[in-house]
Amino acid sequence: MSELHTQLSVGKRNFIFSLLFLAWLVDSLTLFGMNVAIIPISKELHLTQTQSGLVISSFWLSSALMTLLAGWASDKFGSRKIIVIAVFMISLFSLLTGMIGSFMAILAIRFILGLGDGGLPTGSGVAITEIFKKDVRARAKSMLLAAQLIGGVLALYLAGLIADTWGWRTMFYIIGGVGLIVTLLLFKFYNPPKLIKQQATAAESSNGRPMKELYKSSFLWMLVVMYFCSSTVHWGFSSWLPSYLEQTRNLNLREVGSLAMIPQACGLIAAIITGFLIDKALAGKEKIIVLIGAIVSGLCLYMMFNASSIQLAISFQSIFSIGDSAISMAILAIPLKYVSQKIIGSFLGMMYFASGMAGFIAPTAMGALIDGFGGSFQAAFFFLIGALVIVVICAIFYRIPSKNSSLIDHA
What we know:
The chain is mainly α. Helix content is 82%, strand content 0%. It contains 14 helices and no strands.
């Protein structure tokens, strides 16, 4: 199959990618905004810590389930339809989040919103392979991860400011409105190259050797386990960080938003730098990045919890975020750089399914641990450290399949 990216001019390629960047920005605003908004929501609806964790987790359950379908659909139909529908659902149900009045209502709304979120990462992964050459795909992915982290920085700061000034409902009205505008832009202008040819290729491969080999591959399952555990740490930490700062460090909403954005900003810088290094100086050394990132992140989690001051805690959080972003970037770069174009959507779908299930399990599990230990966050932090230990073990044994594997594109 000829490379799809060769049909695009540089200007057209950058324009299409900028639309993807906006889509990820909107998604991360509603995702990370909830991590701050859950504080006043819990007070207004009288939620326990476990119920608060369920509100965050309901989003991730549906997101995880949708990634499997979105992976298959992206391989079959291309990325455009998946991405446009996903951003529309994210925007509409972000708007509706501001209208809820009960625990069951917010569970239902966030569950449906997660269906949209589940389509965006997988569709975007396929879009990267449609648009970019292999030697720049890690950089492209790092920029989308940067969009998520930029959205996280903005959401943490603006959510605290808006919720404290006008109320948390106004925050979701604004995010939903902006998202609908982005949806219109995507519908009108987002047209990745040679969609018809990709559809034929995916259909031809659906009964071929790569798909049969995919689910038997230890390579896939090793990456799935690594990504599940690293995502458990990432989403568990980011979900409960604002509540941790508010409850254990006695900060108000504005202070929570302002301080929580510092680690996010560090993670943003780390993601961009890691993406460039993986395509350049550290090409083929993804395992080393994962190992170092996991060890550093685990140590910083332990030291953050035991920090004697808020300044030290934020410093350790920032270093943790650098390691956390490096892990995610390295793991996600592996399929983008090595896996066959014919099955990349299904491969990424499995990985994002694992990430979504981690997002579902981690916030609820941490909420239950916090409730079970009388409001202490200690057991919850050790839960995250345990997940990082598994990442280290998997990274030690991970390896790229041999050249005779039909999963791998060695061209």
